Amino acid sequence: MINCLLAGVGGQGTVLASKLLAGCALNKGLPAHTAETIGMAQRGGCVVSHVRIGENMHSPLIPLRQADLIIGFEPGEAVRSLAYLKKDGTVLVSAHAISPTTASLSNSVYEAAEMIDYLKETGINVIVIDTDSIVKECGTSKILNMALLGAAVSTGILGIGLSDLESIIDEKIPEKFRELNHKAVKLGAQALAGKGA
């Protein structure tokens, strides 16, 4: 069984990303379940999506310390979800921070670098993706989820290939957005390859 947790904030496309991963698995004939735990998502609150692929699932929610991969759409949310990561698991995280409402209200400073440093200091396997450059090349931040999926699938952890992801995009994404989504997936995969992964 493969467990993948996607952690971000409202509006980043974590739920869509989880549905696409599950769709990839189903297209390969593998059982897959998804579930979301959503905070005040429409106001930038945390969104955590669980994706479980494989046999013998008794719940769609990933138990603590069982996630093979955490995809952190936002560094602070990746840190917040660390309790789900298994001992030899991997965190793939966007380098772009979104300041939480609490930081804005208290006039405190929130930096992505601090969160990423914390992740690295824990000794876990951390892969940081420069999503800002991908967003800039694509011209919109709405492809962040696809860039991270492209990188995540390319790790090999999920048992899903890039061709599987490309097929589900063609199946589920409206035609006018497909080319841009394919570009983001490709750039995400290239970003991972550039790290020697």
Automatic annotation (TrEMBL):
One of its GO terms (molecular function) is oxidoreductase activity, acting on the aldehyde or oxo group of donors. InterPro entries: IorB_Oxidoreductase (IPR052198), Pyrv/ketoisovalerate_OxRed_cat (IPR019752), Pyrv_flavodox_OxRed_cen (IPR002869). Residues 10-190 form the Pyruvate/ketoisovalerate oxidoreductase catalytic domain. Keywords: Oxidoreductase, Pyruvate. The lineage of its organism: Bacteria, Bacillati, Bacillota, Clostridia, Lachnospirales. This is Indolepyruvate ferredoxin oxidoreductase beta subunit. It comes from the Bacteria. The keyword Oxidoreductase applies. SUPFAM superfamilies: Pyruvate-ferredoxin oxidoreductase, PFOR, domain III.
